[in-house]
Structures are given as structure tokens and as C-alpha cells.
Amino acid sequence: MNERFANAWALLPAYLSEHVVLSAAAMALGLVVSLALVIAAVRSERVRWPVLAFASLIQTVPSLALLALFYPLLLAISELTENALGAGFSALGFLPSLLALALYSMLPIIRNGVTGILNIDGALVEAARGVGMTDWQRLVRVELPLATPLIMAGIRTAAVWVIGAATLSTPVGQVSLGNYIFSGLQVQDWVSVLFGCVAAAVLALVVDQLLGAIEAGLANRRPGRVAAGVAVLAVGIGAAALPFGGRAAAAYIVGAKTFSEQYILADLMSAQIRAAGGTVAQRAGLGSIVAFEALASGDIDVYVDYSGTIWANVMRRTDVPPRGPMLAEIGRWLEERHGVVMLGALGFENAYALAMRRDRAGELGIATIADLAAHAGALEIGGDYEFFARPEWESVRAAYGLRFASRREFESTFMYQAVVSGEVDVISAFTSDGRVAANDLLVLADPAGAMLPYDAIVLLAPLRARDELLRRAIEPLLGAIPLALMQEANYRVDRDENKETPSAVARWLAGEIGVLAD
Amino acid sequence: MSSAPAARGQPIIELSAVRRVYGANVAVRDVDLAVWPQEFLVILGESGSGKTTLLKTINRLQPQDSGDVRISGQSTSAVVEHELRRRIGYVFQRVGLFPHMTVAENIGITPQLLGWDGERIRKRIDELLALVNLPSGMAARLPSALSGGQRQRVGVARALAAHPSIMLMDEPFGALDPVTRDTLGGEYRLLHERMGLTTVMVTHDVLEALLLADRLVVMRDGTIVASGTPREMMNDTSDAEVRKLMDMPRRQMKRVAAMLDARR
Hints:
Chain A is an alpha/beta fold. Chain A is built from 21 helices and ten strands. Chain B has two domains: 13-87 and 166-263, 3-Layer(aba) Sandwich (Rossmann fold), CATH 3.40.50; 99-164.
């Protein structure tokens, strides 16, 4: 517990500073755009309705989806500029997060600004014209000052929202306090999740109080207080931005998706690259498709994916070929279509499989999916968010004639808990998952071979295809990690007692397979 | 309309065939009106008669839909609106002091817009506070800390700040108690004379109009129905309704006198 807390604490400067810089930049951008829209909306009724409707519409999009949507959008724009100007930009990380959060901040500022200005006593507006103000002078000297209390209230609401929603920028590759939450959720490290939540909440409270002090200073005509509040905010943002700007650029960026195995392998590869003499940064917690797009566009240099995932999600294939030919086809296709290099397989598979509690399977006399088919009508199945949309779900149902009484979807951590507690009878487990062994689950055999193979494969970005250092660092890992070893490694992170951190397990794993450790 | 005093040279304000329409409602119906330098003209009328709209066409707070407004011979449609308004003082019915500005900032707003330097503005504010009989200690207060009468004194000072030669006043004392109203009216009439101002004031109060005006015009349904000096208007007017209006103060005075006699 203390070690987990110490780990979380050590990460705080990096996570907090990125979170602060991201939130501040998003607020600044959102504020400038919002005020411009407010001014346009109060001057013209024709503009007002669309502006307010647009801001409300943005708010109805879940913030996670808004963040996710900006990645493909920016990727397309980046490709356009690449073709037109010869220079693209990173569509991952800071930029999509900035734009999505800035959009997200706009509704309260716009709505309060428009209301605040339109509700000003008409006599004052006429007086402003009567004493000889131009439209602009009236706005700056009368309307904006009188609407300031409402606008400040909107800014405070927006700041709290943005700081909260910024935790969701982790899956698009932006480091934030959300990294505590996403990685903690995956490896069931509740200390980390709680740490991330509390840190974000404290940050939001502090910022809200500072903005409140500025608001009070404005209302009471105390320029000193306003200046003090602004100064404290500026110093805070400046302090956060310092390490941000001064950070040495890492030569290699290792990507990881959002589960324990990926964190461990990213740490293992990072250690190998460092040992070979390279500098490394990680983009952890990437969404599955985001990770591949990021590699193909060169935002990350190397990560581990799975043959079945590439086959079904990237190549959009629906057939289920045998293992060897499938790997060869994937390697050829990646090279040809994206210039991505499949360096090789690590030696284990992390496939989808159906699993049940061992005692329950024993009671029903189930050992294979074929046995399961006879009982399925009375059983409930739980899957992760992807499983029921994947081709192997179709193929396994067709091959065995499976008909379940009902199905439910879970975040993978909760899916395991659901089968353990008996809420569901069968789940879509992962074969290398430590939680299969940890929870004494039985993986049902697949005699018909209906499930896709999911060999763990190392992929290199197109620009790293001939990178000697990277190849030298990663090649010792190829074929070196058998399934039992990966399960043990995952279990060390996922178990409830004596939990270890992914980086500690990566060191242990390096020792087990006999490569250099840190 | 023959009663305009002759031999005063050019009119300083000249309205010809001014018309202002709100939707289907004609607020001002092709009005001709000339105001002479240093004249105190009162426009008298019921609410809805178009008197305030007519006043506002003079500094283009309400631009006319047709017709022409000339100030010192120059058409107001040919000048930049906000520059026109900085040259003309305007006192509002609902005072319209800016609540987030101090008394001094309110009074100094037009000079500031004109780009006067700070020292000159400060001196002018002191002068004006004295002129409208407010203690200089009020300069730093917010309008919310003032009484109704004090606020309208500030309103008058603000209108006078940039040395306008024309003052437009829209029922300026209408919301005040009768005593304050009478005092402020009298004081303003003295300022008007001392400073050689040209004043156009709108009111629906007959007595106030009679006591302050050099000349009265009476408006009904967007047109001027009678015009003349207070004495002329009290004595001979052909319009029955105007006569009734003008007789009212006299009737009231007779009743008061009768009441006083009866008590004796």
C-alpha cells in the first residue's frame, strides 16, 4: 500500500504538470473563441441561435467520444497538409486533447456571456449610445463589465469541467492525471485510481477558488485582489509549463494499450532500448485502434499488437485462417499498405477464449465449447466492449450453434469480477490473462478452431524499419516469452495481494528470459 | 406655428418632414420644427404621442425613416453618429448612470471618449459637481449609494461634461418627488441661462412645462397640434383638447385658492 502510494506520488510532477498545461491551454483557447462567439451572438440574432445550439450540441457528445473523434479528424487533416505542404503534425496526444477540451469549455462561457449581455437594462445600453460610445466602446466599457459576474461564473464552471474531462485524454495519448485512473483500473490498483481522482479534484477546487477570488475582486472593484488571483494562477501554470518546455525529447517512443500485459511489455521494451543506448518515452493507455494509427503515422515507434486484432480490426478480414499463413499474410500486408514492419512474434498468444469458473464447469460437466453448447440456453455470457462485435463471436456461434439466454458487456476488470461472483456464467477471457489463473477459471477448449489466433507481435513504425538500435534491443525478446511466463507476469500485476508494479514485473520477466535488465 | 420669435438668425436645430415608423405604427408623422439658439423648448404630450421619439431623432438615438434633421445647418445623416452624440448633452428619463462606474467616472465619460487628458477631466468633474450642487466627496461613490435626486444631478452633470451647446432632456425629473422635482427644474433653468444653452425637454407635466419653457409645443398622435409661448398657449389656442390641457393648472389653482378661502 505504501509502496503503491509512493509510486503514485513519484509520478505526480509529470502527470500534474501535463494536466495543468493541457487544461490551461484548453481554457485559454476556449475562452478566446467563446468570447468572440458571444460578441457575434449578441450583435446578431441570426448568429445567436446557431451558436447556442452548436455549443449545446457539443455538450451532449460524451467527452470521451469527443476526444476520440478528434484523433481521426486530425489524422485526415495532417495527411492533407502532408500532401499539400509537405509537413504534417502529430494527430495524437496534445492537439486532439486541446481541441476537444476547448470545445467542451465553451457552452457555459457562451451561454452565460450571451445571457449576461442581453439581460443588461436597455436604459443603460441607450445611455451608452447617448454619451457617444461606439459599438465597440459600449461592449468594452459597459456590456462586458456588467456581464462579468455571469461570465466569470461560466468560466468557473468550464474550468472545473475541463480539469475533470482532461483525465479522459489518456486514451488519445496525452499524459494527464487520467493515467493514474486508466492504468489503475486496468491493473486493479485502486490506490492509483483514487490518487488520480483526488489529484484532479484538488486541482479543480484550487482553480475554482482562485477564479472565485478574481471574480470577487472584480465585483468589489479591488484591482489588487484580481491581480493577486491572476498572478497565483499564472505562477502555477508557469511552474507546470517549465518542465514541459524543458523536457529533453526522447529518441524512441514506446506505445502501450490499456491493459497490464501491454504496460509490462512496454516497460520491458523500454528497458531494452535504454540498455542498447537509446532514450525512451512512453505513450501508455492508448485505445486499440489509436495505437495502430499512431504507429503507422510515426507518432509512436514500437508497440506490441496481436495478429487477430490486426487481422479483424485493421485489415477488416472476416475469414479465420490457420496460424502460420495468417502471420505471413499480416506481415506482407502491413509492409505493403503502411510500411509497418512486423519484427516478429514474442512466443505467446493472447487470444479470446470462453472461460468459466472451474467449479461451475465441473458441475455442468463442461470442458469444451462443444459441451457448453448444450447448456448455453440457460446461461448468461459476459464480454468486454469489443467481443460481441468481433468476427470470432460470429464464427464460434456458427461453429458450435451457441445460443445464450442473455449477454452483457463489461469493462474487462469488472467482467472477471462478474464471472467470479456468479453474475454471469461464461466470459470472453484472454488466454494470457493473469486473472484466468488468479480466479481459478477454466478456459474451454476450441476443438473446431473457431477462434482467431492472437500471436503477440512487435510492430515498428515505417521510419524505424531499418533502425539498428531498435532491432538490436527488441530482437532478443522474439520467441522468448512462452504463454505460462506471460500469464505469471500478468498475474503478478493483477492479483489482489502482493501486487507488483508493471515495471517491477518487467524487470522480473527480463531476468526470467535471460536478457539484460535495468 | 407662426409664433417662433423672429430675428434670432439661423435655427440651431431644424427638423423638416421627420417621420419615424415602428412596424405598422407611425410614431412621428412628418414633423417640422425649428429650435433657436439659447431657446428652452418643451415638448408636451401624453405617453404614446411620439414626443420622446421626436427628441431622439435629434441626436439619432432614433434615426428618422424619412425627412431631415439639421444641427447648425448640417444634416445629421452626414455626420458620424457617435461624434454627433458627444457634442449634444442627453439626460435620460431613467437616468442611466453606469452602475459599475463611480460618480466621477460617469461624469467624465464623454470627455474620456473625446480623449481629454486626465488632469483636464478631473478639473471638469470638480467644476460640474459644484455646478449641480453636489459635494465633491461624492465623486468616489457608486450610483447605488445616491438618492434619486442626487442621481439625476449626476445625470445632468454628465450631459454637460463636454461643453455641449445643445441639451436634450427626456422627462428628466419625472421619477422624483414633487419638491426635488421643482428644485431641480428651477436650478436647471438657471444653468440653461447662465451657460447660454439650447434645451429641448420632453415632459407630460403641464405645470413643469409652463414654468420652464420659453416656448411649448404640444404633440398628439405623432404630430404637433399647437405651439407658442406659455402665455400664448394659456390664453388663445384653437384646439379644444389643448385648451383643456392648458386650463388644468389654472383650474387646480382656483380650487386650491377656494379651499384656502373657505378655511379662513
